[in-house]
Amino acid sequence: MAGWMGALAVLLTLGGAVEAQPERYELGRRLRLFEAAFEQETDPAKRARTYPPMNVAVQSFFSLRLGEAGRAMDEARRHLLPLPPTADERWAEALYLVVEPRLYDAERCEVAFQLKAFYPPGGSPPAGAVLRFAHLLPDGQRQPIHSMLPVRDLPLKGTLVFTDLAEGDGRLEYEVYDDAAQKVLVRGTIGVSFVKDLESRLTALQAALEALPAGKSVEESTARTLAQLLRNLTRKQSPETDFPAARLLREAEEAVAAAQSEQSYFGQGKSGQFWLTLLTGRTRTAIRVMAPPQAESRQPLPLVLALHGAGGSENMFFDTYGHGKIVDLCRERGWLLVAPRSGGFGSAPLSEVIDEVKKLYPVATERVYVVGHSMGAAQALMNVRQTPERFAAVAVLGGGRPVQVSEAMKKVACFVGIGTKDFAYAGAKATGEAFRKAGLPTLDYREYPQVEHLIIVQIALPDVFKFFDQQAGQARGASGDVGQAENRGQR
User: Is the overall model pTM greater than 0.85, yes or no?
Assistant: First the structure.
């Protein structure tokens, strides 16, 4: 236990930090590839074959063996392919591209890259193996790149030079290609951004922030966080995910201008995704928000709070956990989604987060839901126990613990989802047992056969949102298809 907790503590220092190592970014990229393939596969038998290697991937992640985690994710994804990869394709899949920095001046920039092995590839490269850059894709444009380097020894280093680019956020498209066989072995993309007058704009932004009093508004606090993020993206520090840096710079500049005139900028009926920093009491809480198009009506909307697991950040529910599946589930319902960053083992202060979000968007306070995975599941239970009156329902996935249920908590509808091969199985089962013994009126406890610790979120989220829909229908006095929530017991 001590070793696992020590590894977890190290991982938590990585969560949400833009200076996270390139391996963390690459692991997230491979996870998204797996999740996309898993989502498209409907055969339960093929899906089930991915569970054992994904269990290895999770255990490797928690023991800080990120290369081994990537290897296991690749193995899991291969079970979903129509044909097994060739030996050359397997060799190429072991490689990854590092691009640092990620934010450049659009007038002229030198983009340095390295092709490296994420885990030992095994065998030798094909005789015709080359690294080929196909296109630079800023904001929908396709700019061909004529660059092809033979892959002989790793790491392979080089530099791409660009001039007079359009300002915007885009992707650098690359391929490991067998020139002899005229065949793409593997391809990928990496997010890059380009800004005109980059250095002068970052300097002006920092000067404007230094003239503003701290702790006065979400505009000021968010702009400070974005300024640091943007500066880091100009350095040789790999982010944990792709950030739309050109857009974030514009937002930071406009937020500072609003703060200078004591005006509001964030919220205000704006739809889309935003990275914000809320002033929650004496602390600051980083969140990522999805405001659906319905937010433009400025009518109260249901709110979903999503709490990530250990080693994650506010980006995890948006970018992984089913390739951002919760974003689609909220958007199609017209619900607000907020994912706070948890610091260390402590939870984000959800009650304060709700209050601050209400200043940005009208919230239907009787329809506030919280979803937590792993460490986030325990934090969800803690917040519901502390302020049960703030939540209509809670979903606990891949985690849990024994819970003392107060009378006030019995008014909160509870969903517990756990895989039978999850190392957190005992904790989740204890949560379900505690709720049953307390006579919780609305409880849905589900066990998912053979499922491990990570895929549980992707698999269970549709059931979670059906459960939330039931509670919404019950609150409206609906009947028929919505029906009354029931105590389902174990499945």
Answer: yes
